Automatic annotation (TrEMBL):
Keywords: Methyltransferase, RNA-binding, rRNA processing, S-adenosyl-L-methionine, Transferase. Its EC number is 2.1.1.-. Residues 57-227 form the Ribosomal RNA adenine methylase transferase N-terminal domain. One of its GO terms (molecular function) is rRNA (adenine-N6,N6-)-dimethyltransferase activity. InterPro entries: KsgA/Erm (IPR001737), rRNA_Ade_Mease_Trfase_CS (IPR020596), rRNA_Ade_methylase_Trfase_N (IPR020598), rRNA_adenine_dimethylase (IPR011530), SAM-dependent_MTases_sf (IPR029063). Coiled coil: none annotated. Belongs to the class I-like SAM-binding methyltransferase superfamily. rRNA adenine N(6)-methyltransferase family. This is rRNA adenine N(6)-methyltransferase. S-adenosyl-L-methionine binds at residues 50, 52, 77, 99, 127, 142. It comes from Oryza meyeriana var. granulata. Residues 273-308 are annotated as: Disordered.
């Protein structure tokens, strides 16, 4: 199976050393007191630095993660370590935490050091979207919400094999993630996630449980990758759902009738083999799941003319268009909106498109 893999960059791995940050360690002599923010440095909202400070919620997250003895845990954005210390005190064997802000790296390092738990923690300095993750069984994290979509794409469509990810996410994003076909929130993100995993809501968390208080509430979500990989070329599937959900409230018939879209698909389908050869061994770009905008190639409703450099005839394009219409007709999906369809129905359509030589990437 051809798994779309996000590009990874090696990053610096900092192992804890016990002599580090004595002053900061003193500030964390009491783990419970450490959850309140003592304003040692300014928190950056653009980096999603909202610390979760409610001990009951922190305990609940670790409980819901159902860690097992020997588990390797991945945490993204440990911050000052409010969740990290609980993960380290759980039955899990070890925790790897990826943190972008050097001040946070120092803070969590010193705190864990003071608690005598340093031997169980590896802090990886870097951007979690770019960094190569070590092997892990479960991911448990209150992540910076700005990277929700690329991070989930990386977890589910990257090379990692893990049991579950228990993530605190922005409430609205979480609702979209667990939506089912027909829900008003159902979108490309949910479609793509459902293809490879089961996602469910565990609990809501108030914005009042964070310092500084964010504008949005949060929800804890569990994502469990399915044991068996789906029988589909995932890169092709991702490109297909991108085409379908660009305008999720139009019918598929209307979406695939647009001249610009037909032309784009025509070019892609003709060049698919060449591009696959060109890309072999090259680094692929980050997988995008459609967590924010579901926008696609700009679509206007078909009054544009063919590009000047085109080396194909209008007859060829007309024949190609007929193939698309034929596939839609035989699946009886032309009058349906993508947001109402199950993955089985979408997959049936993709298979038929592919059989007809219509390729999406
Ligand atoms: N988990 C902690 C902190 C949450 S704040 C708690 O619950 O209290 C989010 C954290 O993610 C911050 O420490 C921030 O510096 C870090 N962060 C932001 N962008 C990141 C990225 N791209 N990669 C890794 N860490 C990131």
């Amino acid at each position: 199976m051809n798994r779309a893999v996000s590009s990874v960059r090696s990053c610096h791995v900092a192992r804890l050393v016990s002599s580090r940050g004595a002053a900061a360690a003193a500030a964390f002599s009491s783990p419970a007191a450490a959850e309140a923010w003592d304003r040692r440095f300014r928190l950056h909202k653009p980096r999603g630095q909202h610390l979760l400070t409610n001990p009951r919620v922190l305990d609940a997250i670790v409980r819901r993660a159902a860690l097992r003895p020997g588990d390797a845990v991945l945490e993204v954005g440990p911050g000052t370590g409010n969740l990290t210390v609980r993960l380290l005190e759980s039955p899990a064997a070890r925790v790897s935490a990826v943190e972008i802000d050097p001040r946070m790296v120092d803070a969590v390092t010193a705190r864990v050091d003071a608690l005598g738990l340093a031997h169980k923690l590896t802090v990886i300095k870097g951007d979690a979207v770019e960094a190569e993750f070590p092997e892990f069984d479960v991911c448990v994290a209150n992540i910076p919400y700005g990277i929700s979509s690329p991070l989930i794409a990386k977890l589910l469509f990257g090379p990692y094999r893990f049991r579950a990810a228990t993530l605190l996410l922005q409430k609205e994003f979480a609702r979209r993630l667990v939506a089912v076909p027909g829900d008003s929130e159902y979108n490309r993100l949910a479609t793509n996630v459902r293809m490879v995993a089961d996602a469910r809501l565990l609990m809501d968390v108030s914005k009042r449980d964070f310092v500084p208080m964010p504008k949005v509430d949060s929800s804890l979500v569990e994502i469990r990758p399915r044991a068996a990989a789906p029988d589909v070329d995932l890169a092709e599937w991702l490109a297909f759902t991108r085409a379908c959900f660009g305008q999720k409230n139009k019918t598929l018939g209307a979406i695939f009738k647009q001249k610009r879209k037909v032309l784009e698909l025509f070019r892609r389908s003709r060049g698919a083999d060449e591009r696959r050869n060109d890309n072999a061994g090259g680094s692929s770009s980050l997988v995008r799941l459609g967590g924010g905008d579901d926008g696609d190639i700009s679509d206007n409703d078909g009054n544009d003319s063919y590009d000047g450099a085109a080396s194909f005839s209008e007859e060829e394009v007309t024949a190609f268009k007929a193939k698309i219409a034929g596939a839609l007709e035989s699946t009886e999906l032309a009058g349906k909106r993508p947001s109402k369809l199950s993955n089985d129905e979408l997959l049936r359509l993709l298979r038929l498109f592919n059989e007809q030589g219509v390729r999406f990437q």
